[in-house]
Amino acid sequence: MTTTANPSEAPVPTCDVVRLPDGAQLFLRESGPRTGPPLLFLHGNRDNHTHFTELIGHLDATHRCVAVDLRGHGLSSKEDVELSARQCAEDIAYVAKERGWTEVIPVGHSLGAVTSMLIALEQPSLVQTLVLMGAAAHYEMKWKRPEVTEATYRDVITESNARAAPFFFVDGYPGVADRVVASWSWVPFQVHRNLIRLSHPDLREAVRGIRARTLVVAGELDRSTPLDRARYLAETIPDARLETVGGTGHFMFMEEPEDVADRIHRFLAAV
User: Fold this and answer.
1) Is 109 helix (H, G, I), strand (E, B) or coil?
2) Which of 5, 75, 80, 261 is deepest in the core (most CB within 10 A)?
3) Per DSSP, what are the bridge partners of residue 14?
4) pLDDT in the model for residue 143
């Protein structure tokens, strides 16, 4: 079980923005102790920092936690520009430099996991410990999105979300599906268009070069990034271990946040 601190002794969570060199802004929410390398929570495509609320609630009594809205998401800038995982990685590396963090521990989910792997590969001195959730070295779309224009967007997005749901959600956690679909449903059309075009690099060979101690957390029933993709990462990254959360899907950290937090706690204690 996770430990809890006296609420009166815990620093009050704070929110801030970091202005990037091109003028865009990233939103950050920080909680927990203000010492040590931060656990840097990076969400998936069309998601946002609030998806980590419960997981962080089980971790920030003992760990510095910083949840970020990636470019184009949540409370961060939403320009009508091309987006990529590599751009996300460059943004996060800039945030670390701007904040004076010499080490971070990325806790990445889905797109955030790809972003985390790129940071670990390109900034190895910054990332010595890594947590990947719902991750794959190479992502393949499992369903076809319906054609959409700005005029039809509001009607079509419901159908698109319905097509995606079986790959991301499992029975038994309807509240998780409701929260995530809500975040998918109200993205402005121009941003949605750029997010669904967002490129995922093929990292199947590159991940052999990750030197960070890595925890791979997988949902047993995840159909978006299936268990075999997690096994590949755990077997290919030189210093990696796999934890499978039974009965959960792509959002295992929302479905069973205390369980996932305990696994992260044990991993961090061991390294």
Assistant:
1) strand
2) 261
3) 30
4) 62
Which of the given ranges, 6-10, 125-129, 159-163, 192-196, has the highest pLDDT on average? 125-129
pLDDT digits (tens, 9 = 90+) for 84-108: 999 999 999 999 999 999 999 999 9
What's the rounded Cα separation, in Å, for the pair 104 and 52?
Answer: 17
Nearest to 177 by CA among 164, 188, 186: 164
Contact 16, 36 (CB under 8 A): no
Give kind and range of the element (H or E) at residue 67: strand 65-69
Q: Is the dihedral of CA 171, 227, 128, 206 positive or negative?
A: negative
Provide the residue count of the chain: 271
DSSP letter, residue 208: G
Burial class of residue 151 in the structure, from the number of CB atoms within 10 Å of its CB (0-12 exposed, 13-18 middle, 19+ buried): exposed
Instruction: Tell me the β-bridge partners of 105.
Output: 39
The per-residue pLDDT for range 227-238, each reduced to its tens digit, is: 999 999 999 999
Distance CA 25, CA 44 (A): 18
72 in Cβ contact with 195 (< 8 Å): yes
Query: Is-contact 121 210, C-beta < 8 A?
Result: yes
The tokens describing 270, both together, are 């061991």
Give the model confidence (pLDDT) of 257-269 as tens digits: 999 999 999 999 9
Which residues are bridge partners to 42 per DSSP?
Answer: 68, 108
Q: Find all residues with CB under 8 Å of 53, minimum gap 6, and list them.
A: none
Give me the amino acid identity at 157: I
Q: How far apart are CA 22 and CA 40, in angstroms?
A: 22
Q: What is the Cα Rg of the chain in Å? A: 18
All domains in the chain, ordered by first residue:
7-270 (3.40.50.1820)
Q: What pLDDT was estimated at residue 190?
A: 87
